[in-house]
Amino acid sequence: MAIWNLGSINADMVYAVPHLPRPGETLAATELSHFLGGKGANMSVAAARAGATVHHIGAVGPDGRWTVGRLADYGVDTEHVAQVTVPTGHAIIAVEETGENLIVLFPGANQEIAVEQLEQALAGAKAGDLLVMQNETNAQVEAAQMGRERGLKVCYAAAPFDAEAVSALLPHLDFLILNEVEAEQLQQATGLAPSELPVAQVIVTLGSKGVRYFDSDTGESQEFPAYKVKAVDTTGAGDTFTGYVLAGMDQGMSMPQAIDLAMRAAAIMVTRHGTADVIPLLDDVRQARLG
Question: Where do the Carbohydrate kinase PfkB domain residues begin and end (predicted)?
Fold first, then answer.
């Protein structure tokens, strides 16, 4: 089995700040760090570090060759990452002392993925493989349709959230993951609670409160409390959770097992500064002593 990720690739510039800036405020940062990032890249690295075979489908500009090399170093297959003429996507991230963050995103090459590139990549997928997307690239509906036609399990991480984008994908999805605020926004747009969505499996992340899981096939829902840790940076924690959940699903774990593994990984992630480069390895996740 394998995971195919139509995903963004960004260069992350992370600024440590005493507090998140207010409108009109000029604020001096105390530190600057550079990381590989993008929700897609983060999820690919997380899933690979969790032991899955991951094929990344994406695009970078001439300035982004280093990001592709970094993905490959972390065990992600990059055969289907194209180089285009527009600049690589990047994010400017401000992180305050409590770990909360503010992000300004430039999509760049992430919006230049050709349908032909998708077709070529997914020609190598097998029925039962997982296809995952986020709302940071173009061609999401086309990818979902291709995935469904090829018998893949189509998964969507609904961030950055846009109700119209999610609604367009709902008919093609087997698995949806979104946070509590996004779930409320989707319910306002569709009139459907997470348990009522036409998707077999739905996870709603609740931040420090944990996770809620809905199985529409059985009508059951489960709550999973979060592990208690001292957060220093929440950037990439949700992507780490998603990548680990997908890896668990791909490896045949039950959903409670996959969720618990992913929650452990996310708990470790928030104790570290950075994005894809600091996502924990599977051995670290299994051996960690968490409260």
Answer: 6-279
